[in-house]
């Protein structure tokens, strides 16, 4: 039973991280219908920036909370900047091009970013400092749920809440929903569509950066290739929940996280990634619209 | 052709300056800082930022000039504004008296290559030809039929492993394995194609990517079947009528074999493109719904493209196994698929000569410019983005066939 609870919590933690990345996919897809292949790389950039910031700042002997806060800020700022720049350089010139063009461009961007970090820093796995503090109150339950699990779950829940408030009530959030519904119409009522699309990339990248910092601190090591697998899995989660739907992305992520956790715990850990990919293939074949997505028919 | 009126204003320079500052900010944590996490030390590399600043400043000025040049050209609407396929390279190609000597020269070089150069060079050339074959195969799927297949390397792996395993367990030779590997890869193509080809383009890309990864992960983890990450060694090279060849001799032999196969591929692909099914592929790429309305069986057409593309990958896989005599799953990662995709995109989707040139360029260049080899993947990523933004039709745009009906020329170029 204890093993079950442990797997359950580790699955939830995984799911929470996937959710932070999947939201970026789903928001971008909802607004411009593009699978932003480079999104996993943004998550990697976020984690790397946090690591670099933490290492530089630790030279100044800052206390742990300040270190955590400042590296988080750095990760969010730089990841958003990268997300914005990618949109400007690789996607904006291709609006209105055939569907395959932005997708190939996105794959190119993803390969570029991976190798950029590889050449600029290192291709090896490097240790990531434990930025999330250990709570003494959780000591008796250490075997079941760790402090970082709890922090990840709580902060993800908080971020989801803030995000839904942002989408629902702010001016930018409303403009995002309008643009997602109908881009031409949104432009006609005076929404600066290009700026809204850029804002979507920035918000998605910031969420991925938070995810990057949390998971890196949880796992304890990163390299420049972590974005690829994480990106595909988060995409799987987004598709599972119904791409374009924000609650769907969260639901899909939690289901994927739990599935992976139980499958590796009870079946075999060798095939961890195979489970996720098989799930993706199965959903796309049997329910391409996802759990919460609407089936759309194409009109000519 | 007179140069259009292009000039730089102070505003442009200011914008370029801002852009370069933005990129300095962007690259600051990665290029200016180098961390050593083991010793908790930081190495500062300030000169890198100056390089970034200067490079991005110049690039952004160049981009500004390019934009003005293009706008000026579009305004004038002169004979420069010809339909696709009339770029300088293509004009040179169609000029009488150029094509034949060029082809003759290329084939002469190709024929005497192993006699002139060392075994090492020949080996590199075999690899390049292998990629030409892979590029031409993927070109059927991506370039001609417009299905973005990101798991192409899976079929390559199927070919390589089918030769290695059939040889290991049943002692089957190269010549039997070549068609068998191709057949097995085609079978896998159909197996994957059946369920996924109903999906829209971008979903198809992700599913094929997932499929490629599944194949690699199975090969890596199923030790009893595939010998796991340690791979399979001592795969025999192709035999030459039972003769025992020296290492040098067998590499030369493999080179000619590869050359023959590439010519065969070019012949088949060329014939296919002009066939009924080839025209159906082009139509499918341009507009799926219109294509269906014209009575083309969408699923069957897509499936043929998938299976035929996989066939070439399977054959290339068998040759790859025979060439290296050792295979393991590490040779079949997503990056391999990305390289092949890069070849197709750079060459111009659907253009045979373009794909051949792009494969030779992308494989030979990093081999001969060793110091730049580290930047290979970085360059591939840049090529993919830059091609999509600046020249979506590739270096050598494919020329649509024109059909003559009772003296009138009907071009199937979209109006």
Count every helix of chain A, treating DSSP H or I runs of 4 or more residues as helices: 11
Q: Note the beta-strand portion of chain B.
A: under 5%
Dominant shape of chain A:
globular
Succession of helices and strands of chain B: HEEHHHHHHHHHHHHHHHEE
Q: What is the CATH C level class of the largest domain in chain B, in words?
A: Mainly Alpha
Task: State the strand order across the main sheet of chain A.
Answer: 1-2
Secondary-structure class of chain B: mainly alpha
How confident overall, as mean pLDDT of chain B?
81
Secondary structural class of chain A = mainly alpha
Number of strands of chain A: 2
Helix content of chain A: over 70%
* Total count of domains of chain A: 1
Q: Strand portion of chain A, in percent?
A: under 5%
- Runs of chain B with pLDDT <50, length 5+? 78-85
CA gyration radius of chain B, whole angstroms: 24 Å
N- to C-terminal separation of chain A? 55 Å
Which two chains touch over the largest interface?
A: A-B, 65 and 58 residues
Q: What is the arithmetic mean of pLDDT of chain A?
A: 86
End-to-end separation of chain B: 26 Å
Domain module count of chain B: 2
Low-pLDDT segments, ≥5 res of chain A: none
Topology readout:
The complex is a heterodimer of chains A (300) and B (415).
Chain A: H1 2-32, H2 39-57, H3 64-91, H4 100-120, E1 126-127, H5 147-169, H6 171-181, H7 183-188, H8 193-219, E2 221-222, H9 226-241, H10 246-266, H11 272-286
Antiparallel strand pairs in A: 1-2
Helix pairs in contact in A: 1-5, 1-8, 1-9, 1-10, 2-3, 2-4, 2-8, 2-9, 3-8, 5-6, 5-8, 6-8, 9-10, 9-11, 10-11
Chain B: H1 10-32, E1 33-36, E2 41-44, H2 46-76, H3 88-94, H4 99-116, H5 119-144, H6 152-170, H7 174-196, H8 201-221, H9 223-226, H10 247-273, H11 276-286, H12 288-293, H13 298-324, H14 334-347, H15 352-368, H16 376-390, E3 402-405, E4 408-411
Antiparallel strand pairs in B: 1-2, 3-4
